[in-house]
Amino acid sequence: MSAVLADARAGASPEHEFEAAQGLPEPLPAGERILWQGKPEFVPMLERVFHVRKLAAYFGLILLARAITVWSQGGSFGAGAVAALWLLPVAMVALGLVALMATLTARTTVYTITDRRVVLRVGIVLTVTFNLPFARIEAAAVRPARAGSGDIALALGGSDRIAYLHLWPHVRPWRVRRTEPMLRCIGDVDRVGQLLREAWCAEHDLAAIAAPVALRPRPAPTPPASTGARRRAPELSAVR
Predict the structure, then answer these.
(1) pLDDT by residue (tens digit) across 188-219?
(2) Cβ neighbours for 183, distance < 8 A, ≥ 6 positions apart
(3) CB within 8 A of 152, min separation 6: which ones?
(4) Which is nearest to 122 in space by CA: 8, 41, 2, 3?
(5) How far is it, in rounded angstroms, from Cα 96 to Cα 91?
(6) What is the pTM of this model?
(7) How many C-beta neighbours within 10 Å does residue 189 have?
(8) Where are the alpha helices (DSSP H) in 27-171?
(9) Taking Cα atoms as reference points, which of 85, 44, 48, 37 lies closest to residue 64?
(10) N vs C: which end of the chain shows fewer Cβ within 10 Å?
(11) For 94-120, what is each residue's pLDDT tens digit?
């Protein structure tokens, strides 16, 4: 990773005393300013990233299957219910651990958008900061969800790559070969996406187009600088 920098901090405390400012491992250069900073929302993180509803349904099916097995073997209704309830504590512990992971992920994550870059401070035990300059962000896309929350995926250009496991869960699902860092479960995602678009356009000297989602450059190749042609404005895109 050349332009995409990762700065790891081992054993960071909840106060992140190593940070020059919240979410930033060092002070911003002169003239650069923070446009937005936020964290994932807990409930969307629990439901959409850690899939707690699907897990609860899975354990419910296991409990039901256990009870049906007892009934099919001639056991009484009460015996089947008791056999299923023996497995209930295991299911509750598993769901509790998932909820704990979602809580810690939401509390320890900070997303920052400046007028020149996107910074992701992530990690529960080992804190890692990913610095994504606008010059290395080729495209972005918004995936809106319920209650105004949603995700923003960032496609990196050039040879920059970040391992999927290093980013998870702050990564676009199923994009393993060309990973896309993702701002997960942020509130008012349309506004944040438009703010990112305007900042990206300003950095590339483009006129920002008023629209509710984020940027994606057209697939046509950029004309050589010697022709005097300006870079074309990005299209809008949404993650589905």
Answers:
(1) 999 999 999 999 888 877 655 444 344 444 34
(2) 111, 118, 120, 151, 152, 154, 170, 192
(3) 140, 141, 142, 143, 182, 183, 186, 189, 192, 193, 196, 214
(4) 8
(5) 8
(6) 0.76
(7) 24
(8) 42-44, 52-72, 77-85, 88-108, 164-167
(9) 85
(10) C
(11) 999 999 999 999 999 999 999 999 999
For the CA atoms of 232, 233, 235, 236, the dihedral, rounded to the nearest 10 degrees, stands at 170
The rounded distance, in Å, linking the Cα atoms of 141 and 211 is 12
Radius of gyration, CA atoms only, the chain: 22
The structure tokens 């004309």 sit at 223
* Mean predicted lDDT score pLDDT of the chain: 79
Q: How far apart are CA 178 and CA 181, in angstroms?
A: 10
DSSP character at residue 208: P
Element (DSSP H or E) covering residue 182: strand 182-186
User: Which of 102, 100, 93 is closest to 40 using CA atoms?
Assistant: 102
Please give the full DSSP string across 143-181, using - where no structure is assigned. Answer: EE-GGG-EEEEEEE-TT----HHHHTTSB-TT--TT--B
Phi, psi of 182 (to 5 degrees): -140, 135
Contacts with 193 (C-beta within 8 Å, 6 or more apart), sequence order:
140, 142, 150, 152, 212, 213, 214
Tell me which residue has tokens 């400046």. Answer: 114
DSSP readout, 223-235? PPGGGTPPPPPPE
CA 142 from centre of chain: 11
